[in-house]
Design a protein that fits this description.
single chain; alpha/beta; 6-stranded parallel sheet; 3-stranded antiparallel sheet; 11 strands; globular; binds nicotinamide-adenine-dinucleotide; binds (2S)-2-hydroxybutanedioic acid
C-alpha cells in the first residue's frame, strides 16, 4: 500500500512539475469518451488545476464521481447533459478542452468526420462563447483543420473572438515525432524535439527533420520517417480495428498542452508549444490558420514563431500542406455561413 502511494506520488511529480497552484477551473467537453476519461484523469492529477468540470452528452457525472475519489485537492463536478448543465460547466473556466465528437474507423480520413463533428463543435462553441467568452479553447475534435475555424467563426459572429485564446491541439504530432525519431536513431525520446508545422491531417502535418538533432537523415529513411509522422494516426486506427483512434497518447498530449498553458498563465516565461492558431505566417496566401511553435503567456498566444529555415524537400512538403489546409479551413468557415 505504502509502495503504491509512493509510486503514485512519484508519477504525479514526474507528470507535472508544479509547485504551487492558483485557482484554475478546467472544463472538458466530451469527458466520458475515449480521450475525455484519461485526459480528465491526468488533469485530476495536475496540482495546477483547482476545479475540474466535466460535461458529456452521456456519462459526465459518473466519470466525475469516479475521479472525485482520487486524493488530490481539486474538486470534480460532472454536469447533466442539458443546456444549463453545459453552461454551468463552462462558467468561470480558464481552459476549455473539447474532445467531443466521433473518431475515425479504418478507411476513413479525418475529413470524413466533418459531417458529424462540425455541428457538435459549433454547438459547444456557441455555449462557450456565451458562458465563458474569455476562456482558452483547446480543440481536439477532428478534423482540427476545420473545427478550429468553426469555433473562430462562431466567436466572431458573437463579437467575442480573441485569436490569442483559440488553439487546435497538434501536440500529439510532436509527441509522435520525437518518439518515432528516437526509435530510428536509438536515442532517448525525451531528448528529441522535431518541430512539426502546418495542420493536423495527412500531408498538412509537416515534420521539419532538418531542424531536429538528426538533420542528416536522408533518402528512404527520411521518407519513411516523415510518412510515419504524417500518418501516425492511421496506425492506431488500423490497430484498434473499428474501436476508434488514439485516445491514451492523445490524453497525454492534451494534458501536456493544458499544463503548458497553465504554467504560462501562472507566470512562467518561455513556455513554447506547437499549436494550430490564427496565424499571420501564410495569410498572404489565404491560409489563416497554421500550426507552428507558439510561445504561451498569461493572455494565451504570446508570440507565433516563424517556420524557420527549411530545406528544398521540406519546402515541397509545406507547399502541399498549404494547398490542403486552405481548403480545410474554408470548409469550416463555409459550414458556419450556411449553418450558423
Ligand atoms: N487532435 C488530435 O490530435 C486528436 C487525436 C485523437 C483523436 N482526436 C479526435 O477527438 C475526438 C474524440 O475522440 P474519442 O476517441 O475520445 O471519441 P469517443 O467517441 O470515445 O468520445 C467522444 C465523446 O464525445 C461525446 N460527445 C458527443 N457529442 C457531444 C456533445 N455534443 N457534447 C458533449 N459530448 C459529446 C460522446 O458522448 C463521447 O463520450 C474525435 O473527433 C477524434 O478524431 C483528435
Ligand atoms: O487519427 C485520428 O483520426 C485521430 C488523431 O487525429 C490522431 O492523430 O491520432
Amino acid at each position: 500500500m505504502f509502495a503504491a502511494r509512493q509510486t503514485f506520488n512519484l508519477f504525479q511529480k514526474r507528470a507535472f512539475s508544479a509547485s504551487a497552484s492558483q485557482a484554475s477551473k478546467v472544463a472538458v467537453l466530451g469527458a466520458a469518451g475515449g480521450i475525455g476519461q484519461p485526459l480528465s484523469l491526468l488533469l485530476k492529477l495536475n496540482p495546477r488545476v483547482s476545479e475540474l468540470a466535466l460535461y458529456d452528452i452521456r456519462g459526465g457525472p459518473g466519470v466525475a464521481a469516479d475521479l472525485s475519489h482520487i486524493n488530490t485537492n481539486s474538486t470534480v463536478t460532472g454536469y447533466e447533459a442539458n443546456a444549463s448543465g453545459l453552461s454551468d460547466c463552462l462558467k468561470g473556466s480558464e481552459i476549455i478542452l473539447i474532445p467531443a465528437g466521433v473518431p475515425r474507423k479504418p478507411g476513413m480520413t479525418r475529413d470524413d468526420l466533418f459531417n458529424t463533428n462540425a455541428s457538435i463543435v459549433r454547438d459547444l462553441a456557441k455555449a462557450a462563447a456565451e458562458a465563458a467568452p474569455e476562456a482558452n479553447v483547446l480543440v481536439i475534435s477532428n478534423p482540427v483543420n476545420s473545427t478550429v475555424p468553426i469555433v473562430s467563426e462562431i466567436y466572431k459572429a458573437r463579437g467575442v473572438y480573441n485569436p490569442k485564446r483559440l488553439f487546435g491541439v497538434t501536440t500529439l504530432d510532436v509527441v509522435r515525432a520525437s518518439r518515432f525519431i528516437s526509435q530510428v536513431q536509438k536515442t532517448d525520446p525525451s531528448g528529441e524535439a522535431v518541430p512539426v508545422v502546418g495542420g493536423h491531417s495527412g500531408v498538412t502535418i509537416v515534420p521539419l527533420l532538418s531542424q531536429s538533432n538528426h538533420a542528416s537523415i536522408a533518402g528512404e529513411a527520411r521518407d519513411a520517417l516523415v510518412n510515419r509522422i504524417q500518418f501516425g494516426g492511421d496506425e492506431v486506427v488500423k490497430a484498434k480495428d473499428g474501436a476508434g483512434s488514439a485516445t491514451l497518447s492523445m490524453a497525454m498530449a492534451g494534458a501536456r498542452f493544458a499544463e503548458s498553458l497553465l504554467r504560462a498563465a501562472q507566470g512562467e516565461k518561455g513556455v513554447i508549444e506547437p499549436t494550430f492558431v490564427d496565424s499571420p505566417l501564410y495569410k498572404d496566401q489565404g491560409v489563416n490558420f497554421f500550426a507552428s511553435r507558439v510561445e504561451l503567456g498569461p493572455n494565451g498566444v504570446e508570440k507565433i514563431h516563424e517556420v524557420g529555415k527549411v530545406n528544398e524537400y521540406e519546402e515541397k512538403l509545406v507547399e502541399a500542406c498549404l494547398a490542403d489546409l486552405k481548403k480545410n479551413i474554408q470548409k469550416g468557415v463555409d459550414f458556419v455561413k450556411s449553418n450558423p
